[in-house]
Amino acid sequence: MIRVLVADDEPMVRRGVRAVLATDGGIEVVAEAADGHRAVELAQRHRPDVAVLDIRMPGVDGLRAAAEIRRTVPATGVVMLTTFGEDDYILRALGDGAAGFLIKSGEPEELIAGVRAVADGAAYLSPKVAARVVAHLAAGGAGARAERRASARRRAEALTPRERQVLAFLGAGLTNAQIARRLHVVEGTVKAHVSSILARLAVDNRAAAAVVAHEAGIVPPPEPFG
């Protein structure tokens, strides 16, 4: 059972998230919070597998809450809920170690897929979030965009062919187990490839590697939901 904490200052959003997650029999919402400070307290008390946090909340916002949860409850993965126009917040959360990023107006299936992926130690960028992050990172005109994409392709091409395959699947939000099934290898082999990819790309986490995959244009279609 995947145990989840939900934090958002809007009661209807919390109820909506809870209702969507309740459709998956393997997920249980164990606590709810209306602000970041309470979210940290509840995370420390319940030690959930995943914390789903709104990026902007009154008082202690989702970014500071995420950083504190990652510091004090490192086994809890963090999924950030965002809206359009919050690109800077997304980039800060990415740097602070958040592993999942979802648009509030996205499909319910994305919420479940994101929670499951992060619970399994993977990263999950909803397609809309990935597009926003890549567009934001490439800001500065056509020349800058082309250079960033070329740089991402060069970084990807420096990997082994198998590592490039794994990177592409990271960009699609697949877990180690899902990647192992696609490549017909054991999960331990995938873990070794992921560690090598992070080191060779000089990035800190799977979400940052996923951004490189999107910039390089090597992300395959995700697995069908279910």
UniProtKB/TrEMBL annotation:
HTH luxR-type domain ranges (all copies): 152-217
Recorded superkingdom: Bacteria
Entry annotated with the keyword Transcription regulation: yes
Organism: Actinoallomurus oryzae
InterPro entries on file: CheY-like_superfamily, NreC/VraR/RcsB-like_REC, Sig_transdc_resp-reg_C-effctor, Sig_transdc_resp-reg_receiver, Tscrpt_reg_LuxR_C, WalR-like
Chain positions found as 4-aspartylphosphate: 54
PROSITE patterns according to UniProt: HTH_LUXR_1, HTH_LUXR_2, RESPONSE_REGULATORY
SUPFAM superfamilies membership: C-terminal effector domain of the bipartite response regulators (SSF46894), CheY-like (SSF52172)
Pfam families: GerE, Response_reg
Protein name: Response regulator transcription factor
Gene3D superfamilies registered for this protein in UniProt: 3.40.50.2300
